[in-house]
Specification:
By secondary structure, the chain is mainly alpha-helical. It has four helices and no strands. The termini are far apart.
């Protein structure tokens, strides 16, 4: 961005200088009219080229600003997705700890509490699987857009891998939770 600003500043200086030269040409003696006209034509041609270059530089600056804005948005999206992913991983780890805890079938009230707890976990797991599906779709869209945005493609690919692992772990957890619930209900 700094280079473009530098170029724009230099172009503006050159345009101002052409105006100064134009004034000096007008001050030349009138007996050199042909030379004055030739210089004026060349000067006008040069100023026109400078103005065209200025327009191109401004267009490039605008393109760069748009790209940087889109890039910041993609990075913010990835950070948000990573936060959700970490939340899902932590939640799943807690669920697995609960499932791996020993069953204490000492009395009916404890068994009923554990059955209710498993049923709540099962419903929560379904909601988290849905959340994971939405997140996977968002990351897939980001990955598809990464062809136009190579700056985030590595992050998106890494996240896609982690999402796949989390999806597999959730599927195993659903099976384990269903088995535990079956054992409790027998």
């Amino acid at each position: 961005m700094g280079v473009i600003e530098f170029v724009l500043t230099k172009i503006e200086e050159l345009i101002a200088e052409t105006k100064s030269i134009e004034n000096k040409i007008e001050d030349l003696p009138s007996d050199r009219q042909t030379d004055k006209q030739n210089l004026a034509v060349e000067l006008t041609r040069s100023r026109t080229q400078l103005i065209r270059l200025e327009g191109e530089a401004k267009h490039k600056r605008s393109d760069l600003e748009s790209y940087m804005k889109e890039r910041r948005k993609r990075i913010e999206d990835i950070k948000m997705y990573q936060g959700i992913l970490v939340d899902l991983e932590v939640w799943l780890e807690d669920v697995l700890k609960q499932l791996n805890a020993d069953l204490k079938l000492t009395d009916l009230r404890i068994v009923k509490d554990q059955i209710r707890g498993c049923q709540v976990l099962e419903e929560d797991l379904r909601q988290r699987v849905d959340q994971l599906s939405v997140l996977s779709g968002s990351v897939a869209n980001l990955t598809a857009d990464a062809g136009a945005a190579p700056d985030v493609s590595g992050l998106a690919d890494d996240m896609t891998g982690r999402l796949g692992q989390l999806r597999d772990a959730m599927a195993r957890t659903q099976v384990g939770l269903a088995a535990r619930l079956t054992r409790l209900q027998v």
